[in-house]
Amino acid sequence: MRNTSANNDSTHRIDDTQSLELNKLIIQMQLNERTAQQPQRNGGAVGTRKPLENLPSVAAKSTMHSHAQMRKHNHRAAPSSQYPPPGPSKSPLNNQLQPRSTVLVVPQTAQYNETLRVTLSLLAQECPVGRKVVLGLYRTGQLTNERPFFVKQLFPERMRQLMHSMINLSITCRAPKCSGNFEFRVVEQFEIAQEQNRQRNLKQVVREDVKSYSDITFATSNMLHVLMEDADFKKSLLSVQNKIQQSVEDGDSQLMLGTFTLFQRLLERVDHPKLQKHEILSVVLGQLINLILWNQSELEKCFKSTDSIPRPVEAFHSAMWNVLQCVERNPMVQSLLSPTLTHNTAALTSRYCPVTGLFFKDITSRLSYWKMKADLPVIDFQHHRMEDVVTSPFITNRVSDWIKRQVSFLIPNKEEFWRTRGTICDIINQYVVKELGLDAKLYVFGSSANDFGMNESDLDLCLLMPKHELMTHIEKRQVLSRVVALMKDCDLFQDIDTRRLGARVPIVMFKVSAFDIECDLCMENALAHRNTALLRAYANVDPRVRLLAYIIKHFVKRRRMNCAAERTLSSYGYLLMLIHFLQQQEPPLLPNLQTLPESWDGNPRCGCKRSSQTCPLRSPHCDLTERLDEMNLPSVQCYKSSTDRSKGSIVELVPVETYFFNPFAKNVDTHARLKLLEAFGGQNDATVGELFTRFLFYYGIHFDSSRKVVSTRMGRTMWKNEKFVQDSPYWRYHSRLSIEDPFETSYDVAHVLKETRHFYIRQQFTRAYVKLAEAAIQGPSEDFDDLMDRIIEQVDTLSFQAKLNAQLDDLREDTVEHLM
């Protein structure tokens, strides 16, 4: 299989990450032990608060507690409780580590039914008398606290000592009789009688027989890995084989698609070198490979189209690719396969087309399909290298000139642009912000402030509360609801839309009557301001950056690749793709601003190139290394509320590192820093036409989205398997495009992409590249302007096929749940 060495390097990084997390947990527990004998401070409920009745005054608001380990899950809001919520773990004022509730399970790797020891250190203020606290076992990544594998009631009051701040417990239990990754969580349990007293809050609890569990997690353990047993492995393989036979006999597309995914999940759990090499594994994998090799007409004859699976061929090919990826990234699975089957999987992998998501027997079949389905010219890529295309006069001269002409109409007049948006802000400040009486400040972020805005760009606005005033998700909605009421009382506002008040980041959308500009208003989105500043810094490194950004934004909008309602990428996502691409050029046009020290003089720290890295992995002296502690870089911490990911009623502060080399920072020589950055970008002399064409090729044909992550903070390649371990459960394994947020690294900017939209975007980039390549190689077959107009031709609606296939995206998980 391919990329073996890369996967091995990634495995080492994963092991290092797990060891680091375990060490942090042990250090925290040692801190808890040192403070266990210290008395609680007066007012043990400091940091606790009550939900708002209506709308609070600033003076009445207490400081929010911070608790980076506490997690809420996004299926529902937390049940109200008469007891204090979890206490502090880190002070945002002094950034010092504070005692917090912790759970440690040993051993970390266990066999079925093996004895485990779980050590708990709980904050006394989180365990008041009367609160029923339990320890539950859950799958790692399970999004709610419902349906634990088992629970054990804790009796912290028995271990409570007068005035002591920590309660230490130790219990033993057995590992579950199933394989996979698990974690223990400390949660509050409610009896059914308590539920009946909360009739108004029924949606905030989860029923399980006569018990329910709060959505607030007081502490989460380190990961417990339970190894698969051979008997369980063989039994699961036989079940998969039976489902394959049944689905073929019945022509059941849904059953077959679910079986692919079931087999994929089984392979992901193969991690024990003592598993035997069962012939049934090779038989099952061989059956699936043979199914993919069927003639398309035979496959369509056996498996009829249904409303839920309109194109079984495409669905099965995509599912097979996910299976092959599991085999490739798991050496233990490879060790269980016969040499013949190993060869067959590698051969099938080489026949995969990332543009269409299908397997083809040869390049001719692939290009013929492109011609038939996407109306693409047939180009022999084996004889016409991409380098010859992008350096042709057609690209370097004519396409470059065309881009500059187009962008001249897209870039707004700066004075008029800011005058219009400034007037809108003045109106909002006068008629809304002042009337709120919360001492909040209105700030602009996004495209209106990052130097990538257009005249028709939305105006992104944020209300920031006074320093250290953090709001819960519920409070943000209440404030924004008050904003809506004020706007409705004033005839200066129109088209007020509240549909996104319940989103991850609550937003009110509206327009100011005198201006045809869509406005989005949110609360306390401090990270967005740092993102805006980062993009502005990149925009001013080199003039080509803005030229490329504007033409790409224009292209994706006209080709209907930039529509959130249709689950395609945001403009922010495309800008991150562009920055990543320009960082990967030889020589790079953009540096990695997040690893440049304040004293950077413009010179490289080493001689490494993207194509030939000579420094050791993760060397602090290498330009291709991400931010490391050994670099001694400045720290600019921005505290985000983890309620961004949920709808709970408690705020937890999570520090996010947002430092970057900022030419526009206060008290720096902006002119000198911009000169350094311009000199860096000037080392790359590619024309804007060449870079645009390379961009289309990179994301249309070249980029391996099934293995790699688009990352702007990494000088080196970011592999999906290491990203999955670092940021599970928020980061998921899939073969679609993934874009890492530069600061909130657990957030996948491309998470909205569904499979059909992922392929649609790749096909649009490929379509544009192939048309340019054909003209560069053979000469344009039509007028140049007509050709370019056809490349960016407006798409008013997505094709019927794309809409129909979108139903597949929500089907697979339901199918697997049904099978399991």
TrEMBL record:
Start and end residues of each stretch annotated as Disordered: 60-96
User: Which residue range or ranges hold the PAP-associated domain?
Assistant: 688-746
Q: Which UniProt keywords apply?
A: Cytoplasm, Magnesium, Metal-binding, Transferase
Q: Name one GO biological process term.
A: RNA 3'-end processing
Q: Name one GO cellular component term.
A: cytoplasm
User: Which ranges carry the Poly(A) RNA polymerase mitochondrial-like central palm domain?
Assistant: 409-539
Q: Which cofactor does it need?
A: Mg(2+); Mn(2+)
Keyword RNA-binding included in the entry's annotation: no
Q: What is this protein called?
A: Uncharacterized protein AlNc14C196G8569
Q: Which organism is it from?
A: Albugo laibachii Nc14
The organism's lineage is: Eukaryota, Sar, Stramenopiles, Oomycota, Peronosporomycetes
